Each structure stands twice: as structure tokens, then as C-alpha cells.
User: Fold this.
Amino acid sequence: MENKYVDVLVVGSGVAGLYCALNLRKDLDVMVVSKDKIDCTNTSLAQGGISVARDLEDVPFFMEDTLKAGRYKNDVQAVKVLTKESIENVDYLVSLGLDVDKDENGNWDYTKEGAHCINRIIHTQDNTGENVEKTLVQNALNRENIRISEDTFLIDIIEKNDKCIGAILLKDKKQINVFAKSVVLACGGIGGLYKNSTSQRILRGDGLAVALRHNVELKDINYIQIHPTAFYDKSNDERRFLISESVRGEGGKLYNVHGERFVDELQPRDVVSEAIFKEMKKTNTPYVLLDISFLDADYLKNRFSTIYNKCLEKGTDITKEPIKVSPAQHYFMGGIKVNLNSETSMKNLYAVGETACTGIHGANRLASNSLLEGLVFSKRAADLINDKIDTFNLTKVDVDKIYRSREEIEEDNRKLVVQAIKEKGGVIDD
Ligand SMILES: Cc1cc2nc3c(=O)[nH]c(=O)nc-3n(C[C@H](O)[C@H](O)[C@H](O)COP(=O)(O)OP(=O)(O)OC[C@H]3O[C@@H](n4cnc5c(N)ncnc54)[C@H](O)[C@@H]3O)c2cc1C
Assistant:
């Protein structure tokens, strides 16, 4: 067993964890850990892009789109913060080196996705997330005050007098007790708990399990998003391959197996998913068809290069034929309850990104609002930590040796989270 001492421990290396670390003061000793390789995150998988207000006049419209998609179950103050602070955070991300697709005049090529009233999604072809992840990793590696530890599993947080004072980690079967003035959970979503999900399999709600064990408050954990269009694959792929919303945003049309249209493709995700489920039942077919083949083939190969290549690998040429699709679990709107500065109900413990619940998504996330939430609210966590950290002391306690294996802990986490979600009426296809 080893003890380590840092100013801030960040658990998670997706957009939320890395952007938080990069916004922390450069004189702070920051440790970022990831369960697997640094880029094995859902951030890396994001295709469509990042939503951003076109200008200050667009803020109220962006707010209304987010609230409407969320069935008005959103936290209005959080939505105001998200939309208002979208511009400065996306600008900062681009200043860190994110390459954004441009139109013929050299301006950002904003695309459209379901339930946005205008084009306000910036993107890098159809692999925006991979580029976001690479940009953030590169910047973090260049920062002397940030150390990154891959293949490092969060077992638990360390609590004393209702305050978080660090976390217990496992690396190469060795227990490391990290004492920190602030701990930030950026552990991502719960898709790995589902058979049928677009998520990385390793993301199984570990952050939520830790919160449950320590009575840290959760919120909206029954709100789970089903994406309408994952590639239908009989071969029971490990992870369902996503056909991004931007395919429908750029004109893609849905048909049932008899070639009939049945829904407005640009409705919010829950509405389109529901319509697809109904159509699959009505036609007794495990998929519907998504057609984009009427667009120019060269345009498609460039704009949707990831989707084009992956579908081709799976036997579908999207420039010539429709894609068989069906809905799959995609996103977790609920999570660890946080305030507008990403503080949880436990002192010195913050939660950011998909693991947190700011309330911005309400009952249904508006497309491309997740990467943005990861930026805006992790910056807010970093700002608060930067202001307050000098008043904190490191606290050290004796920590017991943990004798359980990672697999046993993961299984306990799974049971705890699944039970909590089911108790609140959430659906899990485990
Ligand atoms: C296929 C797909 C496409 C998407 N497309 C878009 C899009 O176009 N636009 C958009 O806005 N959103 C999109 N999303 C959603 C978005 O990608 C995610 O919600 C967002 O990236 C989550 O970021 P995060 O930083 O919270 O978590 P992640 O990026 O998922 O990172 C989670 C981190 O937590 C770490 N972790 C977890 N448990 C532990 C543990 N026990 N110990 C140590 N580390 C741990 C992991 O190792 C990882 O580093 C998409 C999601 C998917 C699955």
C-alpha cells in the first residue's frame, strides 16, 4: 500500500475530467486517473459535435430548445448557465487546438441536429469527440502540474467528518491512497451496464456507486436516453455503433421496411425512438431504414467518413443503400446531484460530466449538449477550486487494506447502481 498527496485528484479523462484539470491553476499539483487507457472514453466516440450559441441573441432560443427537448423538467438556472457560457468555453477549447470544420468562407460550419431550431453544432467531420479527446490529452501532457495515471481504478473515496479527503485507487494490483484537498469525479455514464448500448463497455456507473455508498445525493437517475439510430447488427457486437443524429440533421430520412415514412426525423430523440419502436412492432422487424444515399457520394464520404467506413466494414454502402438501424441506450441524464459550481452534497467532492446531474438535460438531452456540459460545468468546478483551495489543508487518516479484487468491486458497484436505478423506475436491459 502506498500513500500519495496532491492538491486535486480528478477521476476520469474524458472531456469533463481533462478540461477541469486544464482550467485548474498551474501552481496546483493535479492528478488525473483513468480506469483504462486515457482515451478509452465516451468523449472519444462522440460523432455529431458540440452545440454552442451562435451569439448572445441566440442564447434564449438555445435555452428554449434545451428545455423543450428536456420536457421542461430541466433546471432552468443551469440551462441559462450552459447556454450563456457556451461561447467562451467553445472558444477556449478551439484555442487549445481543436480543429473545427469550416465553410467556404472560412467560418465555422455549423450543422443541425434534431430539436435545434437553427444550425448551431460545431464539428470535426463526424469524429468530433476523437479530436476533442486528442486536443485535451495533448494539452494535459504538456502541463507540468498535471500527472496522468492510466489503468488506475477508483475503488472508493476517503471520507472524514462528512468531508471528502481523498480516494483509494488500484493500479497494477497495488492499493494507492491519494489524499487530496479536492476530489473531482468525472467517471462518465452507465452504458456498460446495458446489453444494448452505444457506450464504451468499461463505463459502468462507478462514480454513482461511490456516491451511493457515502450517501452523496443523486438526482433524476430514472432519466435514461435511448438513441433512435444505432446500426442494427445481428452479430451482437460488443458496443452498438452509433449513426449520428447529424445524418438526420443533414436530411437523412427514416422508412419502415415497406418503404413508408413514419416520423419527423428532427423531433427530439425520445419521440423518434418511440416512433421507431412502434414501427418495428407494427412491421414485426427488428430494425427500420435510415436513408442518406440521395446526397452526393463524395460529400458523404468526407462529411461522414467514420460512419461511411464503419458501415462499409459491416456490409452497408451508405452512398448506395439505406442503413438498418434500431434504438439503443446512449446517455444518462441523471447522476450525482450538483449545484451550479459542480459541488456535490459532500464537502470537497465535485462531480462533472455525464456522472453528474446539473439538471440541464431534464428528461431528455438535446443533441450535442453533453460535450458542452462537460466543458461549462467542469470549468466552473475548476474556478471554485482555484479560489478556495488555499484555505484547505490536506487531511490524512489510516486507510484499511482492501482485499477484494477489481472485478468483485465492479460487480458490487453494478448491483448497487442497477438496484438504485430500478427503484426509481429507470429501465435497464441487464
Ligand atoms: C457513440 C456516442 C456518440 C456521442 N456523440 C455525442 C456528440 O456528438 N455530442 C455530444 O455532446 N455528446 C455525445 N455523446 C455523449 C458524450 O460523448 C458523453 O456524454 C461525454 O463525452 C461524457 O464525457 P465525460 O467526461 O463525462 O465521460 P467520458 O468521456 O465517458 O470519460 C469517463 C472517464 O471516467 C473514467 N472512469 C470511469 N470509472 C472509473 C473508475 N472506477 N476509476 C477510474 N476512472 C474511471 C474512464 O476511464 C474515463 O476516463 C456521445 C456518446 C456516445 C456513446
Observations:
- The CA atoms of residues 237 and 296 lie 30 Å apart.
- The radius of gyration is 21 Å.
- The first strand starts at residue 2 and ends at 11.
